[in-house]
Amino acid sequence: MVNLLVTIHVITGVLAIFAFLLVVVELLDPKEKTAKRVKAFALIGTILIFVSWVVGGYYYVTYYGTDVKPLIKEGASPWIHSVVMETKEHVFLFLPFLSILATGIIFSSNAELLKNHKTKLAVLLLCALIILIGLAITGMGFLISTGARAAGVG
Amino acid sequence: MTMVVGIITLLHIVSAIFMAWPLYALISVNERKAVKAPLGDETDTYMENIIKKQAGRCYIFQITALITGLYLWSRGNFGIALSVPNLLMLGKFLGLFILMGLLSYVVFVIQPKIDSLFAELKKENEEKVASQLNKLRAKRKRFAATCLFVLLAIIIFAVQIREPLSLLVNVVLLVLAALFSYRVYKSNIPYGWA
Fold it and tell me: How far, in Å, CA of A70 to CA of A104, rounded?
């Protein structure tokens, strides 16, 4: 159960990054179906971020807080929790709202997205920010799982 | 090795192989010179489109390599101390971010200028526009050669994760990587290695 939750949390998070990356790729080289595809990728990315959030939150409350956190804090690298996990928890909160904002702009701008350079640039920057924060979160996640393993978890 | 680690390792290696684009981009750009395709004609546009559209694919391969690499590091029991394998991994990580930065500069700064110059080509003084275009293309070519060197440096670091080589061997390998990148920048390497 624990492994399944962590796996779903990681896979949905990584797929969300790729969904927003595909938005960027589509906007860099717009084609006939770009508007439709961009909407689909952004919506999928946002849903995946929320799934990752809920599953990660459930895992944190049910297992991490009671089983993993004490071991990390008593181990050789307590900063893995006190710095990395704390940062991850708080920085992650940007992602659901940034993804809603990006998806909202994409859906409300419709055809304008491809014609208006400023709107396109705004969406590109938002997606780039989501991808960068997503990658940072992924890195922190792997750092935490390395720290947990070093502390004797799993 | 578990099945998941095996599959992720395969994905990591395949992504790295597909990142060899700067090598082939430089070869094709050097071939363009040999063909003497006039600026903006069909052959030129065909090659320009291939180069331009590769950026999206490059981002996807780079991010796949980054995420799979982070997973493999996390599963590799390297710990979080400043050991030689971890420093090599850090070098690979920074190298990948340099590649992403160079690619982003080309995509968001150089390429839009090239595109707008192509649009102007038929309206304005062709010679003036052509000279600006060639300057930007030369700059993009230098970036591709730098990307090739950084990619080779990443591979040099990658092969040493389990058994690090001596510092001298590293210096020699990096110099050879630099020489090869310069050679690819200057010629279409008819003999493969030179």
Answer: 40
CB atoms under 10 Å from CB of B165, counted, come to 12
* pLDDT over threshold 70, residue B39: yes
The minimal CB distance from A21 to the residues B63, B71, B78 is found for B63
- Residues in contact with B159: Cβ distance below 8 Å, sequence separation at least 6, in sequence order: none
A8 in Cβ contact with A48 (< 8 Å): no
Chain B residues inside the 8 Å CB shell of A14: 67
Interface contact flag, B60 A21, Cβ < 8 Å: yes
Tokens of A76: 């050789």
Note the helical H segments in chain A. Answer: 2-28, 34-59, 69-74, 79, 86-92, 94-109, 112-115, 117-150
Given a contact cutoff of 8 angstroms between Cβ atoms, the answer to whether B66 and B11 are in contact is no
pTM score: 0.90
* pLDDT digit string, tens, across residues A72-126: 999 888 999 999 999 999 999 999 999 999 999 999 987 788 888 889 999 999 9
Closest B-chain CA to A149: B77
Contacts of A29 (CB under 8 A, 6+ apart): B52, B53, B56
Across the range B37-57, mean pLDDT stands at: 86
Q: Classify residue B165 by its DSSP letter.
A: P
CA atoms within 13 A on the CB side of A7: 5
Which residues in chain A have Cβ-Cβ distances shorter than 8 Å to B59? 21, 24-25
The per-residue pLDDT for A42 is 96
Contact B67 A14 (CB under 8 A): yes
Nearest-by-Cβ selection for B70 from A80, A139, A147? A139
ipTM score: 0.88
Residue A106 one-letter amino acid: I
